[in-house]
Design goal:
It is built from 16 helices and 23 strands. The protein is α+β, with helices and mostly antiparallel strands. The chain has a 5-stranded parallel β-sheet with strand order 10-2-1-14-23, covered by helices on one side. Strands 18-19-20-17-21 form a 5-stranded antiparallel β-sheet, covered by helices on one side. Strands 13-12-11-15 form a 4-stranded mixed β-sheet, with no helix packed on it.
């Protein structure tokens, strides 16, 4: 994706703060351009919010992606690195929410119904709210499933029924939905409908386009995963980097000067400041705003302190066997309801004798925050109680062998899962992206919070392209040049 300058005047020294996706991609590309790079990382591992937990070290041990777990089929930047790093044979389909007819969905946290049984129930609820109407059955089906997806994914203060308005239904009623219905006719391909008819985004969802996009992205059939977990990507990147990656090195402060950047790092019990020529900061702003920051202008400090991150919590269970298969579920995810929200059924890729993984809970927003504040034992019990109402097989003696989880809103080195700019118009989103990415002297910024695609690996990579362009533009010695002709 980046082209080497044949006449680079001299190698430069660039220090990258953070060994997440953005930091690793930046270091990898800077070295390919002939520059010297080192990475400073506070955690004891690389990958950042890409975190694949393995239940044991034996070959074939089951695993769960506690952070990023999927990418879209049109994420060309991410797929570029998947191919370049030799992982193309590990690309697999990601089966998402309601992808399987046996998946379940909660009805007002009282009972669960199968996807195959849901159309009559969901359209009946919508019709009852509308009263007298003349909408076609396919239009009601579209509106009912869209609300079901909003209810399952968006935090509760975003998923109110007014999202499925008569304005939306009037617009959809003029679209031939037959080509978008699944063979069984149980639900339409919402993602394809909106992709082919963008007036839905710009009309009924004015100001909430990102909410609609994210809900549709998460429920679309156009998703991939990596066999072996998403951490195979970040580990492969780290293995290609020649410069040092210093783990367990906590950044405590950053001071911008005219001729460089001073970074304070805690090593052991001592904090030492060291001057660097160029620094690329990929530290989440939730963590950055807790550091000592000198030499930042007022607007940049405001961006650091005001950028909003959403919490997310995942709880994974290692089970004796994939009991959900006997219950007619081959994969995909259910809407559990309650604090748990979503339950995923990953495929068994390793040794079946070592068990199967159930991602019992995946949630964002206030529900994730509520779970995250519980101590691990209480959190585990809440999840077990809620999921067992949907899957009583969990309570069978010896079914649960192990548990793992991550509350990203409480995790020391993230204090949030991602920047989500829902409820904002396009101009505001762009302004916030620019403010987050804007350099301070020789201090540059990258990460999903600096991109047009927050919460995705693709956004983190996009931000690196922008950051290295900023370096090229601002450095009088022409640090590097990027091939932007995609």
């Amino acid at each position: 994706m980046f082209s080497r300058l044949p006449n680079v005047r001299e190698p430069r020294r660039v220090t990258v703060l953070g060994a997440g996706v953005a930091g690793l991609v930046a270091a990898y590309e800077l070295e390919r351009l002939g520059h010297q790079v080192e990475i400073i990382e506070a955690a004891d591992r690389v990958g950042g919010r890409v975190h694949t937990h393995r239940f044991g070290s034996a070959p074939g041990a089951p695993f769960a992606d506690l952070g990023a777990m999927r990418l879209r089929t049109d994420h060309t930047r991410t797929l570029h690195y998947v191919v370049e790093l030799g992982l193309h044979n590990d690309i697999r389909e990601f089966r998402t929410l309601f992808a399987d007819d046996g998946n379940l969905l909660s009805i007002h946290d009282e009972r669960h119904i199968r996807v195959r049984e849901a159309p009559d129930v969901l359209t009946g609820r919508l019709a009852a709210r509308l009263g007298d109407h003349s909408y076609r059955p396919a239009t009601l089906l579209f509106g009912a499933w869209l609300h079901a997806c909003l209810e399952a994914i968006a935090p509760r203060d975003f998923n109110d029924w007014p999202e499925v308005t008569t304005e939306l239904l009037d617009l959809v009623d003029g679209i031939d939905l037959e080509p978008y219905l699944h063979p069984a006719g149980s639900k339409p391909d919402l993602y394809a409908v909106v992709k082919d008819h963008p007036q839905i985004r710009s009309g009924p969802f004015r100001g909430r386009e990102r909410l609609l996009d994210d809900v549709l992205d998460e429920t679309s059939p156009a998703l991939y995963r990596l066999r072996g977990g998403m951490e195979t990507l970040t580990n492969a990147l780290a293995a290609r980097i020649q410069g040092p990656i210093w783990l367990n090195q906590e950044v405590t402060g950053i001071a911008v000067h005219d001729d460089g950047v001073a970074v304070g790092v805690r090593r052991g019990g001592r904090i030492r400041y060291r001057n660097y020529d160029h620094v690329l900061c990929t530290i989440p702003f939730t963590v950055l705003r807790g550091l000592r920051l000198d030499g930042f202008d007022a607007d940049k400090l405001a961006a650091v302190h005001e950028t909003q991150y959403w919490p997310a919590t995942k709880i994974a269970l290692r089970c004796r066997e994939p009991f959900w298969a006997a219950d007619g579920i081959a994969g995909g995810a259910s809407f559990t309801g309650g604090l748990v929200r979503q339950t995923y059924y990953p495929p068994v890729e390793g040794d079946p004798a070592q068990g199967a993984v159930l991602i019992a809970s995946y949630t964002i927003g206030p529900d994730a925050e509520a779970l995250g504040r519980l101590d691990p034992a209480a959190r585990r019990q809440v999840v077990l109680d809620e999921v067992a109402r949907m899957h009583p097989g969990l309570r069978e003696r010896g079914m649960i062998l192990d548990t793992a989880g991550r509350a990203w809103g409480e995790h020391r080195w993230s204090l949030g899962a991602a920047t989500i700019r829902w409820g904002q118009d396009a101009g505001t989103r762009k302004e916030q992206q620019w403010a987050a990415a804007r350099p301070q002297g020789r201090l540059f910024f990258a990460g999903e919070h600096c991109s047009s695609m927050p919460a995705w690996i693709e956004g983190a990579i996009e931000s690196v392209t922008d950051a290295l362009r900023d370096m090229e533009t601002r450095d009088p010695h022409e640090l590097m040049r990027l091939d932007l002709g995609r």
